[in-house]
Amino acid sequence: LKLKAALQGIFFFLELITYFILSPYARNKWEHFFLTTVSWCLVHGMDGFVLEFEKRYHGLFILHTLSSIDRSRQSNLTVLVFLRVIPSLNNSFGSLTLSQAASDFVHQAIFVFYFVPCLYLHDERLYALSENVGFVLIITYEICGLSHVCIAINRFVAVNAPFVYSRLFRYADFLKYVVFVITVALLDFFSILRVHSINKRHSNTGAQDAASAMRQRRERNLVFQTALQGIFFTSELITFFMLSPHARNKWEMFLLATMSWCLVHAMDGFIVLCCNRDFRQQIRKSI
């Protein structure tokens, strides 16, 4: 565990130094390429390699005939495939490692299946997608970085407070989403309050026109949308984290866990469509 933490920390720290500090001093495009792209790929690839060698199942999936980036992608894929069958990783640390490996795999897959063809094919259609692909790349990089932070916190608590570790992380996911719901509710509440005060000020000055009426209607729709989404999301948290452990059979477990999880995400889009007049008009035009 100490070796893994040290190696991953060293690789991640070196990547930050080369990418943000050394790359601006590159004298040509090749130095810039090695100090940015190669170091960026290397740190994500080494995440998977470090975990493989630390858990001693690296012989399952490594193909030495492929390029280094593709081997890095495969190492993270190996982590994704075999993570749940490793007994020592059937815990919160394993879940965080899964998040890290998934983001690393997507990051490396983008370089293998998009960046490399761009270099060799010089296809304008591929170049046209660069902004969108780059956006996804940045998101995966941020997820990987946050996963490292969470893993470090997880490791720190496990070492310094071993007796409260299982109790703390048992409800960590539930508390995290509760914080999300409260944050969203507070932000929406203050946004609605601000819009309402502006509309009230306009109505007091006699500036009630068609535009003001439309703003008030949108305000009501926003309140309705916020309330419905909050209700569905809170209901999903209750059914998934509180009620599902008391399920008496597999069908109750399916309804309280999988079904509620899918339903809340499906209802998000349905609520947005119902509360947004522009969406409905666009759908009617398309039909």
From TrEMBL:
UniProt entry tagged with the keyword Membrane: yes
Keywords: Membrane, Transmembrane, Transmembrane helix
All copies of domain 7TM GPCR serpentine receptor class x (Srx), residue ranges: 5-51, 170-276
Membrane-crossing residue ranges in chain numbering: 7-26, 105-121, 133-154, 174-193, 222-242, 254-275
InterPro entries: 7TM_GPCR_serpentine_rcpt_Srx (IPR019430)
The keyword Membrane is assigned to this record: yes
Annotated protein name in UniProt: 7TM GPCR serpentine receptor class x (Srx) domain-containing protein
